[in-house]
Prior knowledge:
- The structure holds two protein chains of two kinds.
- By secondary structure, chain A is mostly beta strands.
- Chain A is 12% helix and 42% strand.
- Chain A has a six-stranded mixed β-sheet with strand order 8-1-2-11-10-9.
- In chain A, β1 (22-30) and β2 (33-38) form a beta hairpin.
- Chain B has 32 helices and 35 strands.
- Chain A binds chain B through residues 50, 52-59, 61, 63-66, 69, 71, 73, 100, 102, 104, 159-160, 162-165, and chain B through 243, 485-486, 533-535, 573, 576-582, 584-585, 588-590, 594-598, 624, 627, 629-632.
Amino acid sequence: MSELVPAGKGRALGKMSAAEDSRQFVSIFIADQMFGIPVLLVHDVLGPQRITRIPLAPPEVAGSLNLRGRIVTAVDVRTRLGLERRPKEIEGMSVVVEHLGEFYSLMVDTVGEVLTLAGNDFERNPATLDPRWREVSQGIFRLDQELLVVLDVDRLLEFTRVESA
Amino acid sequence: MDDLLSEFLTETSESLSVLDVELVKLEQNPNNPELLSNIFRLVHTIKGTCGFLGLPRLERVAHASENVLGRIRDGELVVGPGIVSLILQSLDRIKLILSELERTEAEPPGDDGELIAILNKVADGQSVPGYTDGVAAPAAYTPPDPEPAPPPAPVPAAVPTPAPASVPVAAEPQRSTEIAPVVSSVPAAAPQTAPAAPAMPAVAAHRDEPAGAALEAKESAVAAQTIRVSVDLLENLMTMVSELVLTRNQLLQIVRRYKDSEFSVPLQRLSHVTSELQEGVMKTRMQPIGNAWAKLPRMVRDLSLELGKKIELQMIGAETELDRQVLELIKDPLTHMVRNSADHGLELPDERVRAGKPETGRVTLNAYHEGGHILIEISDDGRGLDIVKIKAKAIQNGLATEQELEQLSDQQIYQFIFKPGFSTAAKVTSVSGRGVGMDVVRTNIEKIGGNVELKSRLGRGSTFVIKIPLTLAIVSALIVESCGERFAIPQISVVELVRASQNSEHRIERIHGTPVLRLRNRLLPLVSLERLLRLDREDGKGTENFIVVTQVGTYTFGIMVDRVFDTEEIVVKPVAPILRHLTLFSGNTILGDGSVIMILDPNGIAAESGELSMAENQAVENHTTSTARGDEKTTLLIFKAGEGGPKAVPLSLVARLEEIDLTNVEYSNGRPMVQYREKLMPLIPCVPSIVMGTEGRQPILVFADGERSMGLVVDEIIDIVEDRMNVELVAEKPGFIGSAIIAGKATDLIDTGYYLTQAYGDWFMTGGPRLTGPRRKKRVLLVDDSAFFRNLLSPLLSVNGFEVTTCASADEAMTLCEAGEAFDAIVSDIEMPGMSGFDFAEAVRRSEKWSAVPLVAMTSHTSADDMERGRQVGFNDYVAKFDRDGLIATLTETLSMRGAQ
């Protein structure tokens, strides 16, 4: 994510234009951490779904589900981030995103509201962040109460390329 | 009707309807050169085709019309209603002759002298009352004669719309009455032509004329009965219908739960309609299998000459229909198998006589439907497969050890012929025997969900049975469950279902943990889905009691599952790219209840569960480990060549590993080469220090790039390893990418591209003609916009020993040039949309790669001016379009002249 400029200077942030100095994110929560996915990438937000497990698939692939006649691959973001499996008491929700023409359903704990965040609250990933997280994080937004990790959806689904290579 | 003739009729009818519209447009925009040149080209093509087919009457009319158009194009005549009417009249005459041709398959007798005379007069700039609108040269203009000499038809020049063509009718009244019944006997024609009408308002208006009935008679019945629809559209329709079927199934399932629902009756109707719709759409894609066979008699005839065998080809069930997608996919495998049967299967005549068989060998093709599948048998009454030879070859190729072979049944041993690189032909012929093909055949057939079975009796012949689904869009699948997860197994592979239990006659027994089942005095190997898919079984929940007896090729095995549900029609959807590496699944689908289900691939299961050889198992295991998380690894082939450490190349680039017999190496121009896959393959030593002996065997790596292949000569193939390919030192030597540590050793990575250009880049270009061994066919590029001509000429050229590539436009041909394709000669049409033949010749001469390739112009335009212009732009020779022999002679001459240079 070298194209991201350190925060404070604020302006030339990634894909942000100078004219529009704020971005919208769908906030999601995984293991009490808040994450954000750019709102334009999100196709659907789903409640608990019936998922068909796929034997022998990579561990991150939770299975596949039927989204209005389309088969969507479900990816367990917890596993992807090296976290423990979701505890039974959390039902779980999903955010459907498109990646290289295919739909993927990202399984998270809960989905929150859409947040509009200002560019000058943006920070680069702290150097000490777990490499596994750093890999999928575009950076951090400083919110009043907590921190929001911006998920890089392309990189989040990158493991697919390693697998299929 | 002759295929050629019916194709001609369809194509010409299409051109004629386009012409009708275009001419009317031209009348309104007389100064549009594009419109004019399109019209000219269409008429020109019609003329050329008629000439080729030997239809003099049509040709003369077309020729005369073309002359007039030519003058307009050259600016010597002015477009006006009169001339347009005249051209339209000529077209009507052509239509009339065509309709008769269609009915009787012969050109009707008759005289078009009058019409041609008018056309010629107009072309010459003379005034013809009612037809001349104006001549460009003002001096030549004469006002219309007020009292016309008996005109052939009262067509006033003032009529702006295309005049009803009463001329042909008047000239040949008996014909139009004869034709009328043809049309009335085809009532289906009316609704089909109707939708086309709004798109062609000019034509529609035309029909409203009083003479409409007569015109209607001239509409080709062939053309009116068929419309051309793009395949994409049909595919799309098919997908949508498939979805509809699925939704219908879903609804039916819901309604089943509620008895006496008010929905059940309308749903029944919906169900019926959907089924009929599905059937109808399927039918649009169906084609008789005979289409895939059309080329076989010819091939067998040529083969019998080449091999000195007497072969009779029998074809049964050519009318059996199957999906065109499937048809396309089995075309090549079928051709290959027939060739194999004729070459390997059948013996030479004297051998046959000695064996007490008739001198003429017979290859039989038989196609028929059987329960949602189509079966194609290819059988010969030849020598049959020789078990002993196959065994010996299997050991030689390292596919199995003697001990392993002992344990295999004859059927399993036959399967070796489907392995890559396997051939028992004692001698490699130009036809087959290089062990290339049967593996590809099987792969191709399995790809479409089919399978190949093989029966053979020594001395009596062999029979291959191909079983393929009628269509790829919807398959019926058996739904099974294991450990609470459901899977679909394609019905085509399922032979039977067996329920096993401890106290019934079918009992699962275990040999050292391996489950087997006694089934009709045979031991059936069993595969546990639970173990294969590493499913988690909740304690005490169900056992694998059901056995799905599955057949892949001749390998029969049982898949153990917990439960078996019913069969469902499913639409196979490809799995997400993430999951493509899972060979156990062929796809996924959505079931009637809306849940997603994985479709098991019996071929993958058979491979994974140990069909035949140990080596294959190994490969599968390697594969699974590679899918575990880790860094990107590449499978590399390690070999030794010359001094220094081991060398490596990514295995994916290597088409094949071969060991060649050095006595087969031929030298041409000092370069070693070997006959491989019916072509000459150049051999390039990996490092110059490799010296090939004159006998013994030499390992080579075969690289293939498109049509071409080359052999890289190495000393020894060491190993195949999987490792990261991190180039640490960049090489300075040509032919090497650099060095990397592979399997713990410093290894040089070779640059395949370098060797390919060594083999082809400059070598084939500069040394082209000299390289020409007796076997290398001359490559000819044929550029013609008319599909008809391309179809007509390419077999003609192939028969005469040329290898033909066709292009529909000059632009397409230039793309090939840029792609680096090499040809020995180019034959091009002159009149083409887009880049014309003249422009094309200039482009070719300007190009770097093709500047020296002989160019032959092919056209019916053979005026001295045109020839001169052709020579100026770079054509080496000129051939009249319908002069087939002339074309062959010119090509042969041009090429032999170059060869001698």
